[in-house]
Amino acid sequence: xxxxxxxxxxxxxxxxxxxxxxxxxxxxxxxxxxxxxxxxxxxxxxxxxxxxxxxxxxxxxxxxxxxxxxxxxxxxxxxxxxxxxxxxxxxxxxxxxxxxxxxxxxxxxxxxxxxxxxxxxxxxxxxxxxxxxxxxxxxxxxxxxxxxxxxxxxxxxxxxxxxxxxxxxxxxxxxxxxxxxxxxxxxxxxxxxxxxxxxxxxxxxxxxxxxxxxxxxxxxxxxxxxxxxxxxxxxxxxxxxxxxxxxxxxxxxxxxxxxxxxxxxxxxxxxxxxxxxxxxxxxxxxxxxxxxxxxxxxxxxxxxxxxxxxxxxxxxxxxx
Length: 320
Description:
Elements: H1 15-25, H2 33-39, H3 45-59, H4 66-82, H5 86-99, H6 104-116, H7 120-133, H8 138-150, H9 154-167, H10 172-184, H11 188-201, H12 206-219, H13 223-236, H14 241-253, H15 257-270, H16 275-287, H17 291-304, H18 308-313
Helix pairs in contact: 1-4, 2-3, 3-4, 4-5, 4-6, 5-6, 6-7, 7-8, 8-9, 8-10, 9-10, 10-11, 11-12, 12-13, 12-14, 13-14, 14-15, 14-16, 15-16, 16-17
């Protein structure tokens, strides 16, 4: 299972609240149709594109007040972030902060975009500033904890998740991500217990928790129990390449090479460039004696993600 490949655009401030908070910054009641559309909460992908175009039309004007420009840049940045287009989102958030470095919404958006784009080291200072201003916001703590996790600073991540859980004991994201860190630290029993607790309160996040518990059980050598969790997750989301890959790694850790390769093939049928599945299939092929094919898969995976070998060694997956 790949590490924390989830989008954080709604963390810290509710997505709808972001647009509500933007409106006063831009004096949206000025009768400016382009600005009003730019700042309105989009309900669909098509609306989001239309709103982004309105933002661009407004920003193309000259002579607009700086606070209005900052609001339009922030709104367009969050629309891009919702599409997981992190580079343009970062450009807009940085431009808004260039107008006023004290603005919290573009600062928050930038932290999320840094985290989503693999620049966790840049996300942490932004989260630090936000948490200093909002110490009782558990979602900001979860975001910073995820940044620590992605930097393999697992102890710091666990501290943030535990702080978040003191503020909101039913935060299933904090439970899940704390357990994920504990598994990386080798505390498998504690991690599995954490996933058990997350499943008691999780709703939309149940699939991820099941997949992560599958991984932790596989890391602990409980292969049959791990497979049961991965299969339960696949029943909820059979079209997810990540879940087929997760079960493939469980099979691989159990030495069941044929079903592992079949699951990696299924994952690659959905997401052909997935480095995790390519690397996993490469390891399975090497272990089964298919040296040329296995080495080709691993080379392709490393081309897509040069750090993939180090990442998977953490969960006990390496070439023979």
